[in-house]
Amino acid sequence: MEERKVQTIRGKCPSKSNCYKVVTLNGHGSLAKQKALKDYEKSFYLQCDKYRGADIKGLFSIRINVFYENQRPDLDNCLKIVLDCLQQCKAVRNDRNCVRIEAEKFVDKSNPRIEFELTEI
After folding, report:
1. Torsion-angle region of residue 11: left (phi > 0), alpha (psi -120 to 50) or beta?
2. Separation CA 37–CA 44 (nearest Å)
3. Rounded distance, CA 15 to CA 121, Å?
4. Interatomic CA distance for residues 80 and 114, integer angstroms
5. Counting beta carbons within 10 angstroms of the beta carbon of residue 78, is it exposed (0 to 12), middle (13 to 18) or buried (19 or more)?
6. What is the pTM (predicted TM-score) of this model?
7. What confidence tens digit (pLDDT) does each residue in 16-65 have?
């Protein structure tokens, strides 16, 4: 029986919709990451020791539990951030290969975090 690898990433997962600002580069509008997103990406990389470098090349699924500080945030807002972070830390080759997401939302005021498990298909 294969051992389950549940990874915990501590900290508040930012919302993708609130993590970018419009900047002007060479006279053209562009999107730039806010500091909160950059900080989360760095923290995610350092904490993701169970999957960092796993380089899942093919299709995969993710089971994720998101623990927010309160009931207010939408569950789907953090999913894209997490998938992007998984690609950045080379857990997966390409986040577009995610074919299944099982997500649940919880409230833990004192310990916001995500807990996830990846499965190659």
Report:
1. left
2. 10
3. 28
4. 13
5. buried
6. 0.86
7. 766 666 667 777 776 667 888 899 999 999 999 999 999 999 999 999 99
